[in-house]
Design brief:
With 143 residues, this protein is α+β, with helices and mostly antiparallel strands. It has two helices and three strands; from the N terminus they run H-H-E-E-E.
Length: 143
Amino acid sequence: MSRDGVRGSGEAGAVAVEFALVLPLLVLILFGVFEFGLAWSKVQVFEGAAREGARCAAVRAAEASVGLPVCDVEIAVKNASGGYTPSLTNFSISVSPSGGGECTADTIGEEVTVGWDEDLKINIPFWKDVTVTRTVEGTFRCE
């Protein structure tokens, strides 16, 4: 209402219309930030799990040489992934520069890398669903 108590013509629903126009954009931004944060959290957890898998692979030769049970790299990665489940698509263990697949007594001091491709799904209302594939890797030196 205006000061004199009479409504201005055509302004009665302007605020509601403006809110209806802006609301989808606000929801898009809000859920976009939330979904991106969730995907970033997964990346951080999976990178920590990859490092844990690489540590497991790095000490594998040392454990086997003294008769301790050999660490299973995939199980170490899954256990270190917390509440998330890694896809382990194209899972690989590589030792460089020798190019082998696991640490042995001959590869002590070389780097072992554990990695895989992880599909991260980002679902935002009013927007198409996006899947980003990220290569997750962790590296340690063979002991």
